[in-house]
């Protein structure tokens, strides 16, 4: 029965009127747009066709607002019409029409042509003529003829027409090799009339005429060819055409066989781009290596991420160096291609040897022998070889020369560090000025300077992205650079805007992703969920739920593939556009529950590591209970390691807090605020601390946790007070005290009194009120047995008494506090007490003793790596030096304090100290 057999795959005919046939029936595809859409997919069969390419093909530059939705509707209609499962498949970057090559007449044509050429190279002329003739019979008219108004199809039609004409020339060569002559004259006469610039056709016509006994007409054909070439194209006849002319004059018998003699120079290089910009340093490096090669083999490998301009640079360099080499060969190794597997070294060597004129019957079938023949051929020649788009070192190694006469330029998305005797150049994105120059060159005109800078920044300075953005601007006269910048800035993902014709940044990234193995694809897309700007292997291990060695291996592999960057040892990050692609792939390829679990793991990794780090920074800080998590925190042996980790990961922890807030993990939100608090204090990140505790307070309110709310109010009051936001500080501190009393939290009450005392001190309020709060705090600390905080309160009381003029009592309090802090190894308390003793000495006129106390306090703050308190102590040290008459030392201290405060974004504090410098 019919249903017992798989449905036949449709046959696609593009070499003439566009038709899709099932058995003998032509499918009714519908109107012009849906036919155009299927034609675009067919031309790009096996490769990703982006939605942007489809929209451009269907509507041109002025597409309707709902174009993307309409494309999806057309795709659904095509799927129903074609009635074959998985024929059109969805891809993150667009759609793929999955066709076997034999069902598309253009692909069958290309395969037959390739087979014919192989036969011709192998000396099997009759077989070559048969294969090439069969290929040409597939043509029923103009390829994609009805789609001449569609640029992408017009370009494909032109490519196919070029292949057809080349196949005709090859077929004529094959027939000439079998002894034909008279039968070809009429055809070649018509062909030279239609294609007067094709010297090969003129040479074939001269040969056919000579074989037909028409020597004079053969000579006349040369005169006509030379006239056309000179007058129409400004060119002299090539050496090969001139050689055939001489053979005709000489009645050379070789014209009755395959033409012999020296082969003309081979030049396969693609054209150089006219708008090349930048890369001066890289070009100089390549030139220097070539010029200083001496007797050494010169091999230069250029690697970099997708779209960074590797091939563009190498082709540009090759054109610069071309005059030094007789032959210039270019081969695409298909290391990263959607529709083709990487070219095997055997196949690549076959292509390269034939390009040098080695007959097919001389090419060995053994891999080592074939590579040896290649090296032997290069040893006698001066050849520039471009090996483009290499997959890995194993693919390239057999293609390398053995002598210094040749230059080999290699491009790859993967670092080829395991190639011996190779200079490796890793391309980064363009510097800003070069990026601007490239955009301006492609787009034309000057543009608005600020907007151009913004556009290239939104493109991540990536050459492919810049070229596409500039091309879109050039194609839309109504657009301004500012409007383009707005589109890129406001797009959910700029990648959706970086498509033009058959070029797409997302599609380029997709090729790199598709060539990864499963473990690397998984970690790549999961890293797209990472909330911070960069990460280390510990964070990646938590995110992907793998052990640390495996995470390190995967990250380093992605660096080698240029999908990750390593700006500092052990720190990894995405290029901004690659991050967007990784996130998009995670949304499409990773199930939502697995995404949720991965994000939860990495957020909890940051929470647990930050919590452990905070405990190391100040063990007097009242602890919190953090639930166990399914992750391994970063090991932190001491406070120095904790500060180093916070410095490296601060923005990541802030991003993790935001991610937790977005996910509704309220407990994690306030616990991250707590875990960041000590670090924020040490580094003077007061504004970040406000932001953290504000969201922490909101989370605690949603949880209904009064104790946490009290803590949040207290910390906000502590931060607002030194910033001069007195009313907000007082409101939060009163609320903290009230809530702590409500829940019976004596430590919380004591903390509120301590901060109120500090705030009143900063605001220069009545010192008796300060002492009252400190006395209440000391009583509560005694009741709770919290001796360390009681000691710190004692030191604060000493400072209050000296401000009241009770210097003897003040000194007794502070000296007792200092002794107790030393006994309990409380370095924070020691530094506080020393500052208070310094103030007492200064107030009593003993500036030398004050200098000693403040200097020792500064040493302790530096030991603690507390840059916030260093700034305050340096300011006081400056005052002390001034009082001692050492204005130079005072200026140094004040300047260092100003620099620290500026770095902490505490400009009011910096301005107050800078004002002292002006007055002195």
pLDDT < 50 runs, ≥5 residues: 1-6, 258-262
Number of helices: 39
Shape: elongated
Through-space gap between termini: 104 Å
Adjacency order of strands in the biggest sheet: 8-9-10-7-11
Number of E-state strands: 15
Helix content: 55-70%
Tell me what portion of residues adopts beta-strand conformation: 5-15%
Class computed from helices, strands and strand pairing: alpha/beta
* Average of per-residue pLDDT values: 88
Biggest pleated sheet: 5 strands, parallel
Cα gyration radius (Å): 38 Å
Overall description:
- The chain is α/β, with parallel strands linked by helices and 920 residues long.
- The N and C termini lie far apart (104 Å).
- Helices cover 62% and strands 7% of the residues.
- The strands form five sheets. A five-stranded parallel β-sheet has the order 8-9-10-7-11, sandwiched between helices. Strands 1-2-3 form a three-stranded antiparallel β-sheet, with no helix packed on it. The chain has a three-stranded antiparallel β-sheet with strand order 4-6-5.
- The model is unreliable at 1-6 and 258-262 (pLDDT under 50).
- It contains 39 helices and 15 strands.
- The radius of gyration is 38 Å and the shape is elongated.
- Strand 1 and strand 2 (19-22) form a beta hairpin.
């Amino acid at each position: 029965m019919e249903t017992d057999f798989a449905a036949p795959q449709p046959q696609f005919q593009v070499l003439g009127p566009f038709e899709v046939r099932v058995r003998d029936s032509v499918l009714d595809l519908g109107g012009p747009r849906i036919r155009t859409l299927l034609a675009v997919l067919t031309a790009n069969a096996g490769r990703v066709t982006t939605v942007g390419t489809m929209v451009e093909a269907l509507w041109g530059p002025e597409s309707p607002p709902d174009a993307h939705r309409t494309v999806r509707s057309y795709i659904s209609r095509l799927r129903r019409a074609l009635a074959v499962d998985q024929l059109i498949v969805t891809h993150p970057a667009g759609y793929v029409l999955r066709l076997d090559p034999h069902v598309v007449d253009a692909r069958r044509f290309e395969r037959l042509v390739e087979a014919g050429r192989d036969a011709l190279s192998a000396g099997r002329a009759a077989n070559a003529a048969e294969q090439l003739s069969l290929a040409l019979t597939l043509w029923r008219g103009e390829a994609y003829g009805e789609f001449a108004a569609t640029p992408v199809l017009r370009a494909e039609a032109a490519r196919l027409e070029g292949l057809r004409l080349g196949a005709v020339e090859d077929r004529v060569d094959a027939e000439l090799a079998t002894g034909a002559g008279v039968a070809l004259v009429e055809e070649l006469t018509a062909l030279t009339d239609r294609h007067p610039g094709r010297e090969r056709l003129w040479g074939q016509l001269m040969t056919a005429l000579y074989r037909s006994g028409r020597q004079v007409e053969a000579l006349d054909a040369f005169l006509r060819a030379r006239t056309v070439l000179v007058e129409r194209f400004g060119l002299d006849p090539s050496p090969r055409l001139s050689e055939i002319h001489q053979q005709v004059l000489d009645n050379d018998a070789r014209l009755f066989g395959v033409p012999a003699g020296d082969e003309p120079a081979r030049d396969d290089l693609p054209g150089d781009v006219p708008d090349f910009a930048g890369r001066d340093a890289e070009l100089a490096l390549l030139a220097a290596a070539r010029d200083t090669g001496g007797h050494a083999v010169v091999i230069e490998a250029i690697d970099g991420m997708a779209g960074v301009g590797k091939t563009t640079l190498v082709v540009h360099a090759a054109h610069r160096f071309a005059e030094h080499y007789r032959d210039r060969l270019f081969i695409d190794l298909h290391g990263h291609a959607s529709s083709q597997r990487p070219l095997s070294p055997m196949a690549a060597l076959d292509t390269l040897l034939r390009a040098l004129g080695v007959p097919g019957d001389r090419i060995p079938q053994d891999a080592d022998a074939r590579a040896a023949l290649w090296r032997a051929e290069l040893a006698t020649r001066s050849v520039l070889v471009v090996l483009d788009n290499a997959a890995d070192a194993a693919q390239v190694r057999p293609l390398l020369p053995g002598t210094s006469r040749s230059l080999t330029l290699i491009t790859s998305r993967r670092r080829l560090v395991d190639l011996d005797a190779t200079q490796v150049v890793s391309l980064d994105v363009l510097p800003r000025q070069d990026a601007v120059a490239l955009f301006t060159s492609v787009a034309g005109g000057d543009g608005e300077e600020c907007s151009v800078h913004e556009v290239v920044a939104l493109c991540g300075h990536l050459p492919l992205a810049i070229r596409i953005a500039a091309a879109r601007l050039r194609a839309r006269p109504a657009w301004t650079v500012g409007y383009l910048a707005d589109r890129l800035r406001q797009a959910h993902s700029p990648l959706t805007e970086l498509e033009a014709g058959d070029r797409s940044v997302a599609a380029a990234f997709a090729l790199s992703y598709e060539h990864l193995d499963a473990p690397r694809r998984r970690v790549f897309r999961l890293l797209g969920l990472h909330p911070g700007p960069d990460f280390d292997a510990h964070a990646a291990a938590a995110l992907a739920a793998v052990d640390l060695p495996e995470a390190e291996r995967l990250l380093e592999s992605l660096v080698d593939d240029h999908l990750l960057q390593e700006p500092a040892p052990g720190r990894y990050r995405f290029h901004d556009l690659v991050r967007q692609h990784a996130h998009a792939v995670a949304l499409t390829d990773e199930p939502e529950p697995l995404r949720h679990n991965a994000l939860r793991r990495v957020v909890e990794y940051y929470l647990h590591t930050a919590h452990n780090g905070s405990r190391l920074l100040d063990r007097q800080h009242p602890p919190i209970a953090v639930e166990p998590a399914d992750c391994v925190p970063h090991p932190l042996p001491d406070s120095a390691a904790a500060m180093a980790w916070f410095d490296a990961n601060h923005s990541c922890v802030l991003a993790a807090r935001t991610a937790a807030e977005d996910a509704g993990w309220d407990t994690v939100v306030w616990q991250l605020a707590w875990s960041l608090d000590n670090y924020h204090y040490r580094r003077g990140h007061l504004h970040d601390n406000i932001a953290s505790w504000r969201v922490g307070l909101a989370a605690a309110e949603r949880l209904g946790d009064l104790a946490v709310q009290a803590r949040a109010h207290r910390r906000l009051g502590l931060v607002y007070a030194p910033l001069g936001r007195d009313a907000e500080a007082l409101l939060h501190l009163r609320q903290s005290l009230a809530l702590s009393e409500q829940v019976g939290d004596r430590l919380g009450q004591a903390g509120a009194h301590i901060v109120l005392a500090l705030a009143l001190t900063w605001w220069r309020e009545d010192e008796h009120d300060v002492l009252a709060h400190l006395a209440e705090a000391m009583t509560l600390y005694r009741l709770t047995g919290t001796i360390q905080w009681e000691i710190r309160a004692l030191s604060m009381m000493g400072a209050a008494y000296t401000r009241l003029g009770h210097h003897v009592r003040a000194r007794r309090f502070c000296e007792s506090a200092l002794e107790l802090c030393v006994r309990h190894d409380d370095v924070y308390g020691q530094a506080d007490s020393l500052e208070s003793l310094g103030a007492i000495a200064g107030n009593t006129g003993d500036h030398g003793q004050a200098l000693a106390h403040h200097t020792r306090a500064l040493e302790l703050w530096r030991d603690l790596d507390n840059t916030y308190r260093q700034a305050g102590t340096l300011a006081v040290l400056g005052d002390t030096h001034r009082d001692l008459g050492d204005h130079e030392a005072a200026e140094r201290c004040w300047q260092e304090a100003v620099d620290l405060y500026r770095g902490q974004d505490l400009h009011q504090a910096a301005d107050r100290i800078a004002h002292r410098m002006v007055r002195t």
